[in-house]
Design brief:
alpha+beta, Rossmann fold, 18 strands, nine-stranded antiparallel sheet, about 30% helix, Dna Ligase, domain 1, D-amino Acid Aminotransferase, Chain A, domain 1, about 25% strand, 11 helices, five-stranded parallel sheet
């Protein structure tokens, strides 16, 4: 199939901040974008050329998208696989429905990884209360119970310290299908953004070191402060996952680095990822430009890191019913501010991020921490 050239209309399922950054990347390359999102006021829908305000299952909206767009991509993993299957019959779609259907379901994801020989934390699948009737291996505790679908940023998860807590935890998650994972002693968490094209070309972005607060990504440090041997292993595993999944697009693999040096895959995100936002400012090509390039069957861009960087999320908790003084970020000449255009600031809601660039990781981290502290004290 030939390339989709600038001037064409691209379709996007989802109107959040990832979609906004994709839309901006596409527009800067000369493309137009139609966003399908049920929200009347979405970050991507507000800046796209067209916004189809409809449900992702809406047949009329899907037909309109397929008839007017040369290619369609996604900005979040919970887009219905059925919508992608319909679109695949009419236009280029990246990623494929099959890849997304596996990565968006923790149960299928864990089973896929284990079946293909990838190292994961010990887990068990809990489909219904009958699966809790037998004796549960004590080695799973302490553990964490995660809903199989629609959980993100720490939502849909319950920590369990003993077997007798499992039934109540399952009930608190509305007895949805879940995965119980054993908690293991961690040294750190890292992630790799991998891009794979329709021509099988693969590119990898630098490994990010991620720090979370209450289940939400707080900060990413790039490059990750890990031994090169572990970084090489992470890049190799990320590549193998993309190939085994037959993935076409931008994919994030999140890893646990254990205290004993072992590397386990935690989760797969079938889309650009929060931990890859640093690529907007610190890499030759951003993860969003790469997403455009792959969807349009164009050569991939160089992913080289230009400078060490630290990316910090800005959550709604900072606002406290008033606008922040953004001079506290911008007085640092190497800090880059990105706000997502969301009108309502809520606790835990991602409202934006900033990235600090510096000659060394230590300098970037010190400056980022100082900016964080000044915003909290605003």
């Amino acid at each position: 199939m030939s390339s989709i050239m600038p001037g064409a209309m691209l379709g996007l399922l989802g109107g959040g901040q990832l979609g906004r950054m994709f839309t901006m990347a596409a527009q800067s390359m000369g493309y137009r974008v139609t966003v399908l999102d049920p929200s009347e006021d979405s970050p991507a829908g507000n800046i796209a050329e067209r916004h189809l305000c409809a449900d992702y299952h809406d047949p009329d909206a899907l037909r309109e998208l397929s008839a007017t767009c040369a290619g369609v991509t996604t900005e979040f993993e919970n887009v219905p696989a059925e919508a992608l299957q319909f679109l695949e019959q009419h236009c280029v779609v990246s990623p494929h429905a099959r890849s997304v259907s596996i990565a968006q379901n923790r149960m299928l994801e864990k089973q896929f990884l284990a079946a293909n020989g990838f190292s994961v934390a010990p887990f068990m699948v809990i489909r219904n209360s009958d699966d809790l009737s037998g004796e549960i291996n004590a080695a799973f505790f302490p553990g964490i119970l995660k809903v199989s679908q629609f959980g993100y940023d720490g939502k849909g998860q319950v920590r369990i310290d003993a077997p007798h807590e499992l039934m109540d935890a399952f009930a608190s998650l509305q007895q949805q299908p879940c995965v119980l994972e054993q908690l293991l002693p961690l040294a750190c968490e890292i992630s790799v953004i991998v891009a794979r094209g329709f021509d099988d070309e693969i590119s990898l972005f630098p490994v990010a070191e991620n720090h979370h607060s209450q289940g939400i990504l707080d900060m990413s440090i790039i490059p990750a402060r890990i031994p090169e041997k572990i970084a090489q292993q992470a890049r190799k595993m990320a590549t193998e996952v993309a190939v085994k999944l037959d993935y076409r697009g931008v994919l994030c693999i999140e890893f646990f680095v254990l205290a004993d040096g072992r590397l386990l895959i935690n989760e797969i995100a079938p889309r650009p990822h929060n931990s890859g936002h640093y690529t907007l400012d610190a890499c030759i090509t951003s993860q969003f430009e790469q997403q455009v390039r792959i969807l349009c069957r164009l050569p991939q861009g160089d992913t080289a890191l230009l400078t060490p960087a630290v990316m910090v999320n800005l959550l709604g908790d900072l606002w406290r019913s008033r606008e922040l003084d953004w001079r506290k970020v911008l007085r640092n000449p190497t800090a880059k501010l990105h706000l997502y255009g969301k009108r309502e600031a809520r606790s835990g809601r991602k409202m934006g991020h900033f990235t600090v660039l510096a000659e060394t990781i230590e300098q970037a981290l010190r400056q980022a921490e100082a900016i964080k502290a000044s915003l909290r004290n605003d």
